[in-house]
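hey so i finally got around to running both of the ones u sent me last week. sorry it took forever, my laptop kept dying halfway thru and i had to restart like 3 times lol. anyway pasting them below in the order u listed, first the sequence line then the structure token line for each. didnt double check formatting much so if smth looks off just lmk and ill redo it

first one:
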Amino acid sequence: MAMAVKSVYEMLDNPHRTDEPLVPFYMLQALHGILPQFSSRDEHGHLEQQDANECFSEIQRMLLKQIGKDVREFFRGRYQVRQKCLECEDEPIQNTTEEFYQLSCFLSPEVRYIQSGIKEKLSGEIEKTSTILGRNANGRRNVLIDRLPAYISIQMVRFFFKESSQVNAKILKDVKFPMILDLRDMCTPALQEKLIPQRTAVKKEEDAKIERMRKQKMEGTDAKSVEDDGTPLPFSFPDDEGSNNSGFLRVEGRSSNSGHYVAWVRIDEDKWAMCDDDHVTPVTSDQILKLSGGGDWHCAYVLLYGPRIVKEYPELKDGKENLVEQTEAIENMKTN
């Protein structure tokens, strides 16, 4: 599977590639060979529709297994789990950790935003075995994120089995999701403390951009023509490669379901591409945000968030300093 994915990227990066559509036959053959459940056909011999999240998760699992720890750390999150028996105060509290590679957003009637849909199922009432009572008892499970990976996929749980008609029904509910997702409130106090330096850097970055916009306005300079002089900062902790050191994640892409799956991929900043089979169309962030559901338009099913890259900007010099530098540069050019 890893070699098949590599072949796709090599075809995409080929400088001699024409504008003809790229056909990833090798990738499809590898998928069907390694994961035959995705090669099933209907009575007419056509490939059947498969669940996009199941396919994504299986491909991810195979890649992480084949490539190993170096890549796995970019996708591996960790929960801190606390379970308490509500019927017996003497029952010891259980503290454990669990790994995760995906978050789920459950679309209950109360959920309006993706953050609340994720938090709703992280904690809640459970039934657990009580060693003191010698039976199952009511308990409570509280879950916080102890490690944030650089990349997180989030499944919008839009399908449920409808008993009356014996089919998988789709939930078209409108659930808003942001371009920048902040998961700080779902983290342990210890991790929240570790996130502070990078979150401070985010604030400094925003202040630096505002300062440059103000300077542009004073100088009458077109904002689009100003060079970005920021230097990207690491997005992982020094002792934990592949982690997320800010709690912020930036949406990278998603799949939606409306008869068939469509991929929406971020190219750069506000530039996105809608990939509908072999038909690729440019779209904007505003169009991406409309994938929250609630109507006849596409609705997001799987979202992929990546690290928000924070930049460090140098101090701006005032007009006099810039004028002196420009004059010295001109004099040097004349001398040379």
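and the second one:
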Amino acid sequence: MNPLMIEVRCNLTPESPLWKDINSLTLEIGYPGRGGQILWKRIGWLRDQLLPAGKSIAHALWSQTSAGLVLIFDFLPVVSSGNAKLNKTYRIRKKIETANGRSRTSQSRILEGEYRDEHFTLLPQYPDTDA
């Protein structure tokens, strides 16, 4: 079975005026662990615009100079206990470090299909679909 892949893009361009108040943006994706525990992943691989087959591991951290990077998170499929259905319960949370050095972490939320906010766009590709 193919892995679940989630493509993540930063929605702020390097020229965005919002960067004057933001030092960096971090994204974490939570995936199901044993006993209902959520495990958080902060590392993905860079989708190289020139060599799509290449993989470079990177932290899910964006700044004004790296705003154009596209990261791919990949996960082995998790099957729900008791049946053969694929578990699609993944969560996201983001951390914003402000220009004055303070940081705030958003509450986690369930990732259901495509997600977009002022900072990120996430495009999941589940193994059992062509989307």
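quick thing i noticed on the 2nd:
The chain has one domain: 4-125.
anyway thats it, ttyl
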